[in-house]
């Protein structure tokens, strides 16, 4: 995310159907939220990946993993820096979920130029230009368009 502090952001992932290891339940690496933002890249998977699907390439693969099977309607809240992902869906069906992120309006935007998030920002800008038929758009503008105040007073975000 192009805003900080990360400790004022929470992710919510809600299963819209039963999810388990066969259809790709979430996996988290406990304690990794205490680290810094890791560099994200496209995984080098056979058959490729969906646009905007990024993974972390350089992490300690010996860290313990926790698979999180969930029933329909279960919601997992987690810190945005925790290393997380999902396993491959090995079924013929879909794995449906709703993902939402909440951030304090006290947060502030950062300049992503020269950071590991710069290439992601360029991708988001490209998609926004195509989807909304906008000639010029900034990464921060995209977030401003998509953010909604849930409660309280809008400050920075």
TrEMBL record:
EC number annotated for this UniProt entry: 1.14.11.18
InterPro entries per the UniProt record, alphabetical: PhyH, Phytyl_CoA_dOase-like
Top-level taxon of origin: Eukaryota
The protein's enzyme class: oxidoreductase
GO BP terms, alphabetized: fatty acid alpha-oxidation
GO MF terms, alphabetically ordered: phytanoyl-CoA dioxygenase activity
Family, per entry: Belongs to the PhyH family.
Stated name of the protein: phytanoyl-CoA dioxygenase
